[in-house]
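Readers of this paper often ask what the protein records in our data store actually look like. This encoding replaces a full spatial description with a residue-level series of whole-number codes. For reference, a complete record is included directly beneath this paragraph.
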Amino acid sequence: MTVGPRRALSEIRKNFSSFNWWRNRVLVPYLFGTATRLYPGYPGYENAVRVMDEDWDTMIVLDACRADIFQEVVDLSEFDGYETRISLGSHSSEFTRRNFQGEEFGDTVYVSANPHTSLEAGDAFYHIYELWEDQFDETAGVVLPDVVRDAAIEAHDRFPDKRLIVHFMQPHGPFVGSEVSDTVRDEAEYWRGYRENLEYVLPFAEDIIESVPGKTVVTADHGQIHASGLADKLGLDGHKPRLRLPGLVEVPWAVVEDERREIRTGETNEASGEQIQNRLEDLGYL
């Protein structure tokens, strides 16, 4: 969303003395963000995947899933094809905005546990299952993967002639598949929890592959980094927007071939905005 000059000045006046605001709103996205886009060898936009231009019937999105850890956890021989791709975003909002915003995909139904789908591209699809709105588990602090799986299978049964995007929140925190908290500072413990959370969600993704016919791609909206020391103090932890670090933009692209579905297009839906801000706060985006 565009921020006008008047709003920007108001925000600066309000937060002028806040180090966290300068770090998160200026230092990370603009100084570090510009540096990582210009530094030789770092992934840029010219070779990034535009997911709607790719050939698939179902796309399963694992939120914040790094390609290298996906490769460690998953048996890649189970797929008909695998490669790493470069995402258009290092944050869900960027991934959504740059792939879908302002477009019309009347041939696609989106099943989403992530509020950014509706916030950034709520009118881009034939239909959106806004699971973050009415299926959010208050105790876990996230939409659980069995809910996403069940909704995806139901969506295909209801709309068998549409492409299907299924957006799980895992392995993004909170780590519901591990006893490790996603706020732990110890690096080894953090990545153990992250891997366990990825292992937790994978069987639900496999259920979709087995239940929904067509060519399926398993990918991610962005990756993840875990910073400590000075890097953490500078705000380089997690998955900040505008950063083109390999750990943030290199994502898996695993393909399962199957008998193709016949896809038809239709009218896109209207955007809705209820509860979005609250859910973004629950997930740690705000």
Summary: The domain at 51-282 is CATH 3.40.720 (Alkaline Phosphatase, subunit A).
